[in-house]
Amino acid sequence: MSDYARFDDLNDATDQMGQSVGDASMLVGQFSGELRKMRGTLSEASKDVATLERGLSKGLRRAFDGVVFDGAKLSDALKTVASSMINTTYNAAMKPITRHVGGLISQGVGGLMEGILPFANGAPFSQGRVMPFANGGIVSSATPFGMRGGMGVMGEAGPEAIMPLARGPDGKLGVRGGAVVPPT
């Protein structure tokens, strides 16, 4: 085998290794994104458990206060605990549903407002309010926004900049830069 053939084999092996490293890098990026989503879900679950615990603790406290300080019957106190547990569990179960329904109503209002108000190609809405970004801004977490023909999401992979565009003297549309200061 000639030196050129071995060099070609080495070059092919290097290309394959580069492709494998690229594939692995993409896989790691996707895995990292899924871990971020999982962390957010676990954080929400932790908040829900804390809310449930606070509600149950308040119910127990009211029941025992009723027995000790007000002379209530133990059976009435246990009914208070049971009622508190049922109400707290019901409220915790209904919270995601009410959030979802509220989000749907907000999207509906946003769609209605887009149809009525003169926004060119849609406008970002959050909780039924128009979010002004005329001077730019930074979105640091996943934020849905209305746009013509549906919804979009910005900031889902980390902070994103919103920058106003301007036409230059040549007629091209782009980001306007500040003055350039020559080095001294």
Characterize this entry briefly.
The chain has helices at 3-68, 74-116; strands spanning 125-126, 129-130, 137-139, 143-147, 150-154, 160-162, 165-167, 173-175. The chain has a two-stranded antiparallel ribbon. Strands 3-6 form a two-stranded antiparallel ribbon. Strands 4-5 form a two-stranded antiparallel ribbon. 59% of the residues lie in helices and 14% in strands.
Question: What is the quaternary state of this protein?
Answer: single chain
SS summary, helix count: 2
Low-confidence stretches: none
Mean pLDDT: 77
Q: Biggest β-sheet, characterized?
A: 2 strands, antiparallel
Overall, the morphology is extended
- Based on CA atoms alone, the radius of gyration comes out at 29 Å
Helix-strand topology string: HHEEEEEEEE
The CA-CA distance between the termini, in Å, is: 59 Å
Strand content: 5-15%
Strands side by side in the biggest sheet: 1-2
Please state the structural category. alpha+beta
How many extended strands? Answer: 8
- Share of helical residues: 55-70%
Characterise this structure.
By secondary structure, the chain is of the alpha+beta class. The chain has a domain at 118-164. The protein contains two helices and eight strands. The chain has helices at 3-68, 74-116, and strands at residues 125-126, 129-130, 137-139, 143-147, 150-154, 160-162, 165-167, 173-175. The strands form four sheets. A two-stranded antiparallel ribbon has the order 1-2. It has a two-stranded antiparallel sheet with strand order 3-6. The longest helix is centred in the first third of the chain and has 66 residues, at 3-68. The chain is extended.
